[in-house]
């Protein structure tokens, strides 16, 4: 089975999109390939790491990514949130 790829996109990829990526990656990784990226890469937000730890997800080892690292990937859905 080919897993659909889902991309969560934002400006810096430091907080919300890292959190959003964790849920499908860790809860439904057998069904989806989840990615997050931003216009710029930055440092992973410490508050995001702490918040995810509260709901039993460890994102501390994740790295932020610039969207151009994903050029050429076929993405099934683009999930974009404002704010």
List the helices and strands and how they pair.
Blueprint: E1 5-10, H1 16-27, E2 33-38, H2 46-54, E3 77-80
Parallel strand pairs: 1-2, 1-3
Put the structure in a nutshell:
This protein is of the alpha/beta class and 83 residues long. The chain has helices at residues 16-27, 46-54, and strands at 5-10, 33-38, 77-80. The termini are far apart.
Describe this structure in words.
By secondary structure, this protein is an alpha/beta fold. The chain has a single domain, classed as Response regulator (Rossmann fold). It contains two helices and three strands. The chain has a three-stranded parallel β-sheet, covered by helices on one side. It is flat, with a radius of gyration of 12 Å. The termini are far apart.
The first-to-last residue Cα distance is 35 Å
CATH class: Alpha Beta
Cα shape? flat
Average pLDDT, rounded to a whole number, is 84
In N-to-C order, the SSE pattern is EHEHE
Helix content: 25-40%
CATH fold field value? Rossmann fold
Number of helices: 2
Strand arrangement across the biggest beta sheet: 2-1-3
Radius of gyration: 12 Å
- Can you tell me the CATH architecture? 3-Layer(aba) Sandwich
Question: Can you tell me the residue ranges where pLDDT is under 50 for at least 5 consecutive residues?
Answer: none
